[in-house]
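Suppose you are handed a protein chain with no further information: no name, no annotation, nothing but its sequence. What can you learn? This example shows the usual starting point.
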Amino acid sequence: MTVLSHTHPLAAQLENDLLPLFRAALPQLSAAAPQVLASVFAFSSGSADAFQAYHLGISCLLDNVADDQPEEVALLVSAAGLDADLDAGVQLSAQVVWGQPSGAVEVQADMPPADVAALHAALPGLLAALGAAARRGTPRL
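A reasonable first move is to predict its three-dimensional structure. Written in structure tokens, the prediction is:
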């Protein structure tokens, strides 16, 4: 459990729902892309206070990458607006994104605000896209 889980119920729900799913996906990712070091992450962020947003996902670090190519591709799930008084202010987003210098978005899920069911529905496609990107080893052109 991370630091934010005790301050917002959506963060706790995301941790309980997604972190075990992400951990279970690691062996398949490693088998499909042996050049990748995959790990699960979770952290909070914010400019005014550390509890404005919560992020979790899977990071895939690539081996033997050219200097001008990204070394990481990740499935990133974010909940923003956690400091708002109403859950209606919470925005969920999920995407497979490349690290710098690319920053390219491989695929992004479109979801209504705070719709955890839509997030769950999008996860199989996002996990598949992460696996394909990790096997390919470079952003799509």
